[in-house]
Design a protein that fits this description.
seven-stranded mixed sheet; about 30% helix; alpha/beta; 20 strands; about 375 residues
Length: about 375
């Protein structure tokens, strides 16, 4: 018999408003018994039905609700949810590469599906979704007929679900690199070993916006496989792409060659040290781009992350030519937009430069956020002019 989860008094308000997570410490009692990872029904303290989701006793998030009526999680259900998610992206004009499913924001908690041309890459971030990945893959094949489906569930968050990290081909053929088209630029995406699912699709529109700020000499720090670097190269005289990963820099060079760009050079090194060395050498750039990985992955790390963001942004401000631009980002939702802006204001004051805000954006529309779930709003993109 299916699990029945009863919440403590008043714990249902956040969930009724649309949030999907039910924490173990919010539960007053559990009735009936089924397999871990099965579909469980959630009720308020006084017995009102709230919704259904997959249960995992090993996780602090006991249930992730994604059904709020009498539906069940069969093939027909998944076909409808996956099609609805993709239809939304098609309506926005996405074609070649985009996030097809964004977990909670598409009412499919813990499931990520990214489209790279004719290859799909999925992440299964909870026990319930992991148990149903064959069903999900069958639905993806039936709906979209991809050349291949690759699983990139090699993320540490799975440990909280009692799951191992894993990478594997789930369907068809998956090459080491998939060629996509982003903003008219050809990119080779390393779907098997690249960051996340192979590429950072959430910055697509921001990379296009960055072009107008990229005349003269550009320094792209934390460049990864070169998304910002290549977009900058369409407008800049010279782009220096910096990353600590030699594999990432090889990808930058390969992508530059693919597009015939001759104005991109690579620099291997720690971005913090590279920026400090440029400052000591009194080297200046017309535009500096900072798109680092998340400096904090939990609330406990915010103070240290704040110092890290301030260090790198303060130094960057000092090496931008007068009239030039600093393009700076954060992808950690724990570093809120308010906190990130506070850090930038402090950095500007301590840099001795006059800094004005030119453009502020967030993640791409194929990564929508839920107003009821702040965890889904994570990306900050600021363009600042250094006077």
């Amino acid at each position: 018999m299916a699990y029945e989860i009863y919440l403590k008094k008043n714990e249902e308000k956040r969930i009724i408003n649309g949030h999907s997570w039910v924490y173990a410490n919010e539960v007053s009692k559990i009735e009936n018994k089924d397999k871990n990872g099965s579909l469980a029904a959630v009720y308020s303290y006084d017995g009102r039905f709230i919704g259904k989701g997959y249960i995992n006793h090993a996780s602090k998030i006991l249930v992730r609700i994604f059904i709020r009526n009498d539906e069940t999680d069969d093939e027909e259900f998944y076909l409808a949810r996956l099609k609805a998610a993709n239809d939304y992206r098609l309506k926005l004009g996405y074609k070649n590469c985009y996030r097809m499913v964004f977990a909670e924001a598409d009412n499919l908690p813990a499931l990520i599906v990214d489209k790279y041309a004719d290859v799909l890459v999925i992440q299964c971030l909870s026990l319930g979704i992991d148990m149903r990945k064959k069903l999900i893959c069958d639905c993806l094949v039936k709906l979209f007929s991809p050349k291949g489906i690759y699983e990139r569930s090699d993320v540490s968050v799975r440990k909280k679900e009692g799951l191992p990290e894993i990478k594997q081909v789930l369907y068809g053929e998956v090459p080491d690199y998939v060629q996509i088209d982003e903003n008219g630029i050809k990119m080779l995406v390393d779907v098997k070993n690249g960051q996340k699912t192979g590429y950072f699709l959430d910055q697509k529109e921001n990379r296009l916006s960055a072009r107008k700020y990229c005349g003269g000499e550009v320094l792209d720090c934390f460049c990864n496989s070169g998304g910002f670097s290549l977009n900058a190269a369409t407008a800049a005289d010279k782009v220096t792409a910096c990353d600590i990963s030699r594999l990432a820099l090889k990808n930058v060079r390969d992508n530059a060659d693919l597009n015939g760009f001759k104005n991109i050079t690579t620099l291997c090194g720690d971005a913090f040290e590279v920026l400090r060395n440029f400052r000591k050498e009194k080297r200046k750039f017309d535009t500096v781009i900072l798109d680092p990985p998340a400096f904090c992955k939990s609330a406990d790390e915010v103070k240290d992350a704040y110092r890290g963001y301030k260090d790198v942004n303060l130094t960057a401000m000092k090496i931008v030519r007068s009239g030039g631009f600093l393009i700076t980002c954060s992808c950690s939702h724990y570093m809120t937009a308010t906190l990130f802006e506070k850090m930038l204001i402090e950095s500007a004051r301590e840099s001795g430069r006059i800094v004005r805000s030119v453009e502020i954006k967030t993640q791409a529309p194929d990564h929508p956020s839920l107003l009821c779930a702040e965890e889904t709003q994570y990306l900050k993109f600021f363009v600042l002019q250094i006077i």
